[in-house]
Amino acid sequence: MAQCCILGAGNWATAFARVLADAGHDVTLVARRPVIADGVNQRHHNPSYLSDIELGPTVGATTDPVRGLAGADLVVLALPAQHLRGYLRHLATLPVWRDATAPVLSLVKGIETGTDMRMSEVIEQVGGVPTARIAVLSGPNLAREIAERQPSLSVVAAREAAVGELVQQWCLTPSFRAYTLDDVVGVEIAGAAKNVIALAVGMGEGLGYGHNALASLITRGLHQVAALGEAMGGRRETFAGLAGLGDLVATCMSPLSRNRTFGERLGRGLGVEEAARESRGVAEGVATSRAVRDLARAYEVDMPIVSGVVEVLEGRTSPAALVPVLMQREPKPEW
Ligand SMILES: NC(=O)C1=CN([C@@H]2O[C@H](COP(=O)(O)OP(=O)(O)OC[C@H]3O[C@@H](n4cnc5c(N)ncnc54)[C@H](O)[C@@H]3O)[C@@H](O)[C@H]2O)C=CC1
Ligand SMILES: O=C(CO)COP(=O)(O)O
After folding, report:
1. Which of 235, 251, 218, 50 shows the shortest CA–CA distance to 140?
2. Interface pTM (ipTM) of the complex?
3. Which Gene3D superfamilies match (predicted)?
4. 55 C-alpha to center of ligand 1: Å?
5. Is the shortest distance between the CB of 12 and ligand 1 below 6 Å?
6. The CATH fold of domain 3-182
7. Each residue of 279-300: pLDDT tens digit?
């Protein structure tokens, strides 16, 4: 049995707490708001996220990261990508963080705007965590379905095989199964960029298009995301796996996805601010789209779907106007 500390107490943190508890571990969620910590400790429910899900007696919560981190065998980061740097800056001032030797597992799917850094790079640079201790988990993992104990698969990527295998063992349950992989770059790019493609697919849905259009966006989206990942040093087959195709399909097809739903609202004519107001949590693709576009430019990878999404988000075009732009590109071979 391990002591697990999850930094964050939102949708994914709550669902993953249940996974770790089901795997037999003690879990402490580190929340920002006392109302969440009290709800988890006194009633075994997170009152703000997945509030109908029973968390059981082995899941506790605190608002104090020092208490959460004390004695942790596994530290899990489950925060929005654009807030990770600020949070890590604070953690890096704490002796309990600086002296820790536990694996640090990132559940975060985004790229930092401004720096265009992957989350494991931010964890290493700002958190001072050596690469060998970092693992990332990604896959078709819609939080609600996992919290409901529906069968789900995922990937744990780590540079250090022993760390990946340890995390894999620690999160195996009858309904959650993780595979290991050594392609951290591929898994992080796949997890971040699929949110941008899901925004585009959502726009297509909002415009009223059928499955041909949506499947075409998913397929060409995967092609473009894989090309970026490969250019950055990831492996092509990662994008055909759970963290690539698997997560892309789940996110683009599910009404539970915040990114797809955000895109759908834009497709129906809502503005970015209105769509954000209605979102049930962070839609990472909104900020990450600019970073992915910048990476595509830097690595000279053609990503017209991502560029189009950025144009819409920055108000320079509309989802409907994007359709002829994508359809009337220069004809070319598929591969
Ligand atoms: N919800 C899902 O189904 C899945 C989410 N993810 C990823 O996990 C990450 C977190 O997502 P969710 O839990 O769904 O988001 P959420 O919006 O449900 O919760 C975010 C959590 O972060 C906290 N937070 C926000 N800003 C903060 C700050 N400045 N400092 C400290 N804490 C802060 C919030 O209080 C909340 O506890 C994202 O990168 C997302 O893409 C990955 C797989 C599945
Ligand atoms: O990453 C996810 C599923 O794997 C969650 O997607 P959303 O953030 O779009 O809800």
Report:
1. 251
2. 0.98
3. N-(1-d-carboxylethyl)-l-norvaline Dehydrogenase, domain 2, NAD(P)-binding Rossmann-like Domain
4. 18
5. yes
6. Rossmann fold (3.40.50)
7. 989 999 999 999 999 999 999 9
